TrEMBL record:
It comes from the Bacteria. Pfam families: HAMP, HATPase_c, HisKA. Keywords: Kinase, Phosphoprotein, Transferase, Two-component regulatory system. The keyword Transcription regulation does not apply. It comes from Cystobacter ferrugineus. Transmembrane segments: none annotated. CDD domains: HAMP (cd06225), HATPase_EvgS-ArcB-TorS-like (cd16922), HisKA (cd00082). Its EC number is 2.7.13.3. Residues 199-251 form the HAMP domain. GO terms for molecular function: phosphorelay sensor kinase activity. It is an enzyme of class 2 (transferase). This is histidine kinase.
């Protein structure tokens, strides 16, 4: 039997119960209707008959009074009009005896009518003078007796109607109670039977559900035992076949999976760098041996980062959030992102990298964070910076002497010079000035990278910063035919930022100088400050120059890097120094550029706390 038939069969008791209640209700209502009809057909007919008889008797009495009053002909007509109907109605009543005592009352009425009729005949035979006496002596009492007999039958039937109506009402109440009990009983029985049959029909579903739950918990040996040939039994057989296949697959593939897992873990453990694998929820899924030893991180402790040093934990959480946030792989921008980790053999510097782990559907299901040991490389970079700083510092003394000697020669302090010699000396002096600027930039960059340069932060007006950055370059811009202007913003005109004014002016001055240098005649350089959220102010330097190709934008802030084909006159240190200064202020120098349409350099600085409180 298929499942649909079983479920239909389970509903049959309820349907039969409802059918039984309906049949009982119809029969009961039919009986009540018949009882009501009996009251109307029997007692009501007698009531109507008695009312007609009383009316005819009264009309006969009225006819007698007409005769007494001298209207004999009118009285006789009325006598003939009422005697025959009264006889007919009396015959009907004699054939409609339904109540106890009604037959005796009807007999008395017949006798009273016979006596009244005899006396009426005698009354009609009297002359006008004697009719009055006969009426009052014999006819009037006979009329009263006949009418009282009719009224007795009328009252008898009316009482019977009231009694039967009350009995029918009581019977209706009993029927209502019985019907209510029958409905409740039939519904309860039908529900119990239906529930029992439904439970029996759906019991295999529970067996199958339990088997599925145990299979989901890893019990591949579980089986669903369901007898029958319906759909659930077929599903149970399919489930058992699936469980059998999974069990065989587990037996055949478990060893291979374990071997593959062991091989992968051995490969990760063999890496000298620290490897931490995070799940999509942020918890640690796996670590290699190097990470366990260096970070004191173990999966047995729940994979939490609480035991990791705070600086390293911040880096791990930042890289993890970047990768799991769907931003792709995390690549460091330089050695300055390396984090210091104390170790028994000395301090180590770790450079973070992050890669997403993709699932079968292509979505990110985890993140792998690698902390690369760059201690030696960082030391080499520090040695290189120290060497550059030392060389630049040593250059200053001979360079100063050379500048002084060239200046004295140009001023002819050592004797007269020719015009050609003067041109050569002027060119040499310009190159010395340029070399002096490069040496100063190298020393500034070395101080910034080594952390020896301490910023003197204080509230600085944005208007003053912009004016100080534009003033030194107005002459050069006019000579080149470039419009140099400030774009005021009323919202930040009187706003102050928390910065080192000299260093901030150096950054903006460098950006303006580059913009003027790379903007053609009739071009424009705009310097502006605008609100960046509630707590920061963004400075931007935009030009309409040649722009920077996308392949060069990623390296534009590297030391000594110059875009191929650009005009000479720079050693490629200005943007690197500007980036270091902005980063020291807690910001990041950014670039948006399009070839042939110009470039926009910008960075954000925090507003002064006094402005925020105001």
């Amino acid at each position: 039997m298929i499942l649909r038939h079983k479920l239909l069969l389970a509903q049959m008791p309820l349907a039969l119960a409802l059918l039984l209640v309906g049949v009982v209700a119809v029969n009961t209502l039919r009986e009540l209707g018949r009882a009501g009809q009996g009251i109307l057909a029997d007692n009501y007919r007698s009531v109507l008959a008695m009312q007609d008889i009383i009316e005819h008797l009264e009309r006969l009495d009225s006819a007698a009074l007409f005769i007494v009053a001298g209207e004999r002909q009118r009285g006789l007509v009325q006598v003939e009009a009422n005697r025959a109907p009264l006889e007919t109605t009396l015959r009907i009543q004699e054939g409609n005896i339904t109540e106890p005592g009604e037959a005796e009352a009807t007999r008395r009425l017949s006798e009273a009518w016979s006596r009244y009729q005899t006396r009426y005949e005698r009354f009609l035979g009297q002359e006008e003078g004697g009719a009055r006496g006969v009426y009052f002596e014999t006819l009037a009492p006979g009329f009263q007796a006949a009418r009282e007999a009719a009224r007795a039958i009328l009252v008898l039937n009316q009482d019977a109607m009231v009694r039967k109506s009350e009995a029918q009402q009581r019977q209706s109440q009993r029927v209502n109670v019985l019907m209510g009990l029958a409905v409740v009983g039939a519904l309860a029985g039908g529900l119990v039977a239906s529930a029992s049959l439904t439970q029996r029909a759906l019991r295999p579903v529970g067996v199958l559900s339990g088997a599925v739950r145990r299979l989901g918990e890893g019990d591949l040996g579980t089986r669903a035992v369901v007898e029958g040939g319906d759909e659930i039994a077929g599903l149970a057989r399919d489930f058992n076949a699936m469980a059998e296949a999974l069990q065989r697959y587990q037996r055949s593939s478990l060893g291979e999976l374990l071997q593959a897992q062991a091989s992968a873990q051995a490969a990760i453990d063999s890496l000298p760098d620290l490897v931490v694998v995070f799940g999509v929820e942020g918890g640690v899924l796996n670590v290699n041996r190097a990470a366990e030893e260096a970070l004191r991180l173990s999966l047995e402790g729940g994979g939490m980062l609480g035991q990791v040093e705070p600086e390293v934990r911040v880096v791990l959480e930042r890289v993890r959030a970047h990768v799991l946030g769907g931003k792709g792989a995390y690549l460091p921008t330089g050695y300055e992102e390396a984090v210091r980790l104390e170790a028994p053999e000395g301090a180590r510097w770790l450079l973070p990298r992050g890669s997403p782990v993709y699932g079968e559907g292509g979505g990110v299901v985890g993140a792998t964070v690698i902390l690369q040991d760059v201690t030696r490389l960082r030391r080499f970079d520090e040695l290189k910076n120290d060497l550059v700083a030392t060389v630049a510092h040593e250059f200053r003394t001979p360079l100063t002497s050379l500048r002084m000697a060239i200046h004295l020669c140009v001023e002819e302090a050592a004797g007269p010079i020719t015009e050609k010699q003067a041109d050569l000396l002027h060119a040499a002096r310009e190159d010395c000035e340029r070399l002096q600027g490069i040496v100063d930039d190298l020393l500034d960059l070395s101080k910034l990278q080594s952390g020896r340069e301490v910023l003197e932060l204080r509230p600085v007006s944005t208007r003053e910063v912009l004016e100080a950055a534009l003033a030194p370059h107005r002459m050069a811009a006019e000579d080149k035919g470039v419009r140099l202007r400030e774009e005021p913003d009323p919202e930040v005109e009187d706003t102050r930022v928390e910065a080192d004014p000299e260093r901030l002016q150096l950054v903006l001055s460098n950006l303006v100088a580059n913009a003027v240098r790379h903007t053609p005649r009739e071009g424009e350089v705009v310097v502006r400050a605008r609100r960046d959220g509630e707590a920061r102010i963004r400075f931007e330097v935009a030009d309409t120059g040649e722009g920077i190709a996308p392949e060069h934008q990623a390296r534009i802030f590297e030391k000594f890097y110059r875009v191929p084909g650009s005009a000479t006159g720079s050693a490629g240190l200005g943007l690197s120094i500007a980036q270091e200064i902005v980063q020291a202020h807690g910001g990041e120098l950014g670039l948006t550029s399009e070839v042939g349409r110009g470039s926009t350099f910008g960075f954000s600085l925090p507003r002064s706390r006094r402005d925020e409180q105001g």
